[in-house]
Each structure stands twice: as structure tokens, then as C-alpha cells.
Design a protein that fits this description.
Layout (H helix, E strand, L loop, with lengths): L2 H4 L2 H21 L2 H8 L4 H34 L3 H4 L8 H16 L6 H13 L2 H26 L10 H66 L1
Length: 232
């Protein structure tokens, strides 16, 4: 994989953000967002949109950090085998800490297995995304909460019926349709934002898994190469 592919994660994240923003712009342009927000008397849709916006900012920050890790790896990938560990003090972040731990382990053992360090590096990368996956589930649960609240709004007026009157039934149907609107629009908001956030964090998960795999291959190949040089 070329260095250009390593360093464009932030640009892919920005492109995805632009597409999402364009989709929301179209929805607002045709009045769909205004209709959903105005029809939601529970204000859960407002909460869903705010939480999604904050989660997206967090996602962009993680994409920037992961992009930096991939840049560091791309620079180390071009170094000769013997110079990889000597560069351990210069990189920052998780990869720099990994190289520092790898150098200490190889100084203390002649045949050091780096698989534990690689697995720990991959777990640390993915643990950064745990909050995003949790928020995605929260958005879905908020949508379901809106469904329950909407049905409560829809059924509450039924308890106030004392007699059959066409005018009362007309008001009752209006109140029930308002509650149904709350249920439908909050469910829709939760489903859409949860799905979008899962897709966004899937991009980070795939990039982190790719980086971990390539790091494992690099460490294994260079470890074997150095062992062969020492034997010679």
C-alpha cells in the first residue's frame, strides 16, 4: 500500500462528512427536518441530532489521530530493518509507545515474540472507537424511546373520553395523529443517525485493523531478517 493511501484517512473522513452534511441539507431544503422537529413534542429528535453532531466531531478527531499513526507507520515502513527500533523515540502516539516497548523487549530477550505487543496495540486503537459504537447504540435507543413516548401521547386522550361526540372524536384523532408523528419521526431520526454513525466508525475500525495487520507483518518480517543477520 502506498504512502498516499496511508495519509488520506482524514480526507476520506471529510468526504464522508460532506456527503452526510449534503444529505441533511437536502432534507432541510425540502422541509423534512423542519417538519420532523416541529412535529416532535417530546424534543427527543433535537437531542438525537445534538448527540449525533457531537459524536461526529469526536469521530473526526479520532480520524485525525489515526491518520497520524498511519503517517508514522508509512515513514517507518521505508526504513532499513536495523533503523526501525532506533526511531522509537521520535514517533509520538500509540505507535511510538509500541516501538519503545518492542525495543526494550528485544534488548531483554534474544528471541522476543512481539505478538502480544501487536495485539495490545490493536486493542488500544479499537478501544478509542468504543465510545462511538456506544453512542450509536444510544441513538437507536433514543429513537425507540421516542416511539414509546409517541404512543403514550397517542393513547392519553382516549382516557378522557366520557361520551361519543363527533367533535370530540375529531379532536381525539388530531391528538392521536400528533402522538403518532412523535413516534415515527423520533424512530426515523434514531435509525438514520445510528446507521450513519456506525458507518463512520466502521471506516475507522477497518483502517485500524489494516494498520495493525501491516504492523504485525512488518515486525515479524524484520524480526526474522535481523535473526538471520545475527546467525550469519
Amino acid at each position: 500500500m502506498s504512502q498516499g493511501t496511508d495519509t488520506n484517512l482524514v480526507f476520506r473522513a471529510l468526504i464522508m462528512s460532506g456527503l452526510v452534511a449534503f444529505g441533511f441539507f437536502l432534507a432541510a431544503r425540502y422541509g423534512l427536518i423542519t417538519l420532523a422537529l416541529d412535529s416532535d413534542k417530546s424534543y427527543i429528535s433535537y437531542l438525537i441530532l445534538v448527540v449525533y453532531g457531537l459524536a461526529t466531531l469526536h469521530w473526526l478527531w479520532l480520524a485525525y489521530q489515526l491518520g497520524n499513526e498511519r503517517k508514522v507507520f508509512a515513514s517507518l515502513d521505508g526504513l532499513p530493518p536495523r533503523q526501525t527500533e532506533t526511531a522509537a523515540g521520535s514517533p509520538a502516539g500509540l505507535l511510538g509507545r509500541f516501538l519503545s516497548n518492542l525495543a526494550r523487549k528485544r534488548r531483554s530477550a534474544e528471541t522476543a515474540d512481539a505478538s502480544v505487543l501487536v495485539n495490545a496495540f490493536g486493542d488500544e486503537l479499537l478501544n478509542r472507537h468504543a465510545l462511538g459504537h456506544f453512542i450509536s447504540d444510544v441513538l437507536l435507543k433514543l429513537g425507540l424511546l421516542g416511539t414509546v413516548v409517541g404512543f403514550i401521547f397517542m393513547l392519553l386522550p382516549i382516557g378522557d373520553i366520557d361520551e361519543f361526540d363527533p367533535s370530540i372524536m375529531r379532536d381525539l384523532l388530531a391528538a392521536m395523529s400528533s402522538g403518532m408523528a412523535v413516534a415515527l419521526y423520533t424512530t426515523l431520526a434514531g435509525l438514520v443517525t445510528s446507521t450513519l454513525l456506525k458507518l463512520q466508525y466502521h471506516l475507522l475500525d477497518a483502517s485500524a485493523a489494516d494498520l495493525t495487520t501491516r504492523l504485525a507483518v512488518l515486525v515479524d518480517v524484520r524480526g526474522s531478517h535481523e535473526s538471520a543477520d545475527d546467525a550469519a
